[in-house]
Design brief:
It is built from twelve helices and 13 strands. It has helices spanning 2-23, 139-175, 182-199, 205-233, 238-260, 285-307, 309-319, 321-326, 331-356, 363-378, 383-403, 409-423; strands at 39-43, 45-46, 49-50, 55-60, 63-69, 75-79, 84-90, 99-101, 108-114, 119-121, 126-128, 276-278, 281-283.
Length: 436
């Protein structure tokens, strides 16, 4: 009965999040100089970095609305007078001769819907001349390099999801709680690092990251001690606590919105001008560092779970709470540590996610759907399953953009999740549990 109830709640969560994703586009900060209530924006970026001087035109039903030229950082913004459906065209003649659109005929994006008081992103993928789909030159070598670059992007995205999802999985495994507020811990970590390392103080970014991890970890411990532990002591059910976590998520999310604002911000350290060439692959130092560092962190978490007394206690508590308590394990202490570790990992994941995209008030909520997908795909309550499932989700999301529009990348990840669960309901590394 408990398994069916949890499955029903998770299905409701995923459906609600998927509806939110399709209904509400992500807000974005305009480039300096103009800040319309709604508009269309983007960043023109090639394999070697931002591209300046590319002309963009926005039309509605064939009527020109406005235009813009990409700045030195590749960003452009066109304000629109009202919400509606618009067409965006990139002037291929203004592209450098060394670059071309990835897909022939992709210079026009139709049916971009701008919501009230929102900024819609338009994406024009660029590749080196001769490497695009259907190009006469470059052939298989160009396509291979492109596919390898997509593989690395998917691996990077999946590792970031895995880092944030491990804490979510550990919390569920040790307490049975589906923590809907976990995404806000991701956002808080990114915001703390932005304030300390870029916005106000401009401290060394390593120090900003460490303080973000510590701060979010302590926040997770405070929430456990001040909210969840008293609720458990009073015998509050998991469904009620799940509803409370939704309320906590809304409170934290809109508190961030009130103090941080709705704009998208970039870390100063997110701008990279140089590229590394490793065989057929071109990758920025930032992305390479994120991939290597994420792998090291996840390996460290795995070693902690396997080799340390605390890690073994966490796994024992996840397997059988009553038996763990009877064997002398301090359950409350273990759960508190799970919240601290999960919060720290969420904060670190938020910083890395902000480095690859942007820092904004609901970035954690936008990532929460994929975190849930990774946890369920890998197996509920399994930290290793959350890592593996998240990497699969990241790879599927990125590879789907090779053949399908980028706006559908999350949808394809959900379809893979459904397909795997139809064959293996317990997830990749999960264990079957008897219901009733």
């Amino acid at each position: 009965m408990r398994t069916r109830l949890i499955a029903t709640v998770l299905a409701t969560v995923l459906i609600s999040l998927l509806v939110a994703f399709t209904a509400a586009p992500a807000s974005a900060s305009p480039t300096p100089g103009a800040k319309p209530d709604q508009g269309i924006t983007g960043t023109i970026r090639g394999p070697d970095g931002p591209v300046e001087g590319v002309m963009i035109t926005v039309l509605q039903d064939g009527t020109p609305i406005g235009g813009a030229t990409s700045a030195a950082d590749g960003k452009w913004l066109v304000g629109v007078p009202k919400p509606g459906v618009y067409q965006v065209t990139l002037d291929v003649k203004t592209l450098p001769t060394t670059l071309q659109l990835r897909n022939p005929g992709g210079e026009t994006l139709s049916n971009l819907r701008v919501q009230p008081d929102a900024v819609k992103f338009a994406i024009f993928p660029l590749v080196k001349a001769g490497e695009g789909a259907g190009s006469g030159g470059g052939g298989g070598g160009g396509q291979l390099a492109y596919l390898v670059s997509v593989l690395l992007s998917g691996l990077e995205f999946g590792l970031i999801i895995a880092m944030t999802a491990v804490g979510l999985s550990l919390i569920f495994g040790t307490t049975g709680l589906i923590n809907f507020a976990h995404g806000e811990l991701v956002t808080i970590g990114a915001v703390i690092a932005y304030i300390l390392g870029t916005s106000l103080f401009q401290w060394p970014f390593i120090i900003a990251i460490i303080l973000a991890i510590v701060g979010v970890g302590l926040l997770g411990g405070i929430i456990e001690l001040g909210l969840w532990r008293p609720l458990r002591k009073r015998g509050v059910g998991l469904i009620q606590m799940f509803i409370i976590s939704i309320g906590l998520a809304l409170f934290l999310r809109h508190t961030i919105l009130f103090f941080f604002g709705s704009q998208r911000e970039q870390y100063l350290q997110a701008t990279t001008q140089t590229q590394l060439t490793l065989g057929p692959v071109t990758i920025s130092p930032r992305d390479l560092i994120i991939i290597v560092f994420s792998i090291l962190v996840l390996v460290g978490v795995a070693v902690m779970l396997q080799r340390t007394r605390m890690g073994k206690a966490m796994r024992a508590l996840a397997d059988n709470r009553d038996l763990a308590e009877a064997s002398g394990i301090d359950v409350d202490r273990v759960i508190r540590n799970v919240w601290i570790i999960g919060g720290g990992l969420a904060g670190l994941g938020g910083v890395l996610f902000g480095l690859t995209s942007a820092v904004y008030w609901d970035m954690g909520f936008n990532l929460l759907l994929l975190m849930f997908a990774g946890v369920i795909l890998g197996g509920l309550g399994s930290a290793y399953g959350a890592m593996l499932g998240s990497i699969v989700v990241g790879l599927v999301a990125q590879f789907s953009t090779v053949w399908f529009p980028a706006e559908l990348e999350y949808a394809w990840a959900m379809l893979v999740l459904i397909g795997v669960l139809l064959v293996r309901p317990q997830g990749i590394l999960g264990k079957l549990q008897r219901a009733g």
